[in-house]
Design a protein that fits this description.
By secondary structure, the chain is of the alpha+beta class. The chain has two helices and two strands. The mean pLDDT is 89.
Length: 68
């Protein structure tokens, strides 16, 4: 999860305003990370606990197989 978090941070710093070198870059608020989890799984619990304890850049939403 740490590697993913760092990769997303790097992407957002490179491609979103105000840190992007592009004049057309959109603000960080326009980017959303979607995390797909199996509802009630150990993975869901671990991901939610990790994100509660660690800063995550941009917006994050969770979806599950039950979110149809």
């Amino acid at each position: 999860m740490e590697t993913t978090r760092r990769g997303i941070k790097e992407f957002l710093l490179k491609y979103s305003a105000p840190t992007s070198m592009s004049a057309k870059a959109k603000p960080t608020d326009n980017f959303t990370t979607v995390i797909s989890l199996h509802k009630g799984s150990n993975g869901e619990q671990a991901a939610r606990e990790y994100l509660a304890k660690n800063e995550f850049h941009g917006k994050v939403i969770f979806v599950s197989d039950e979110d149809n």
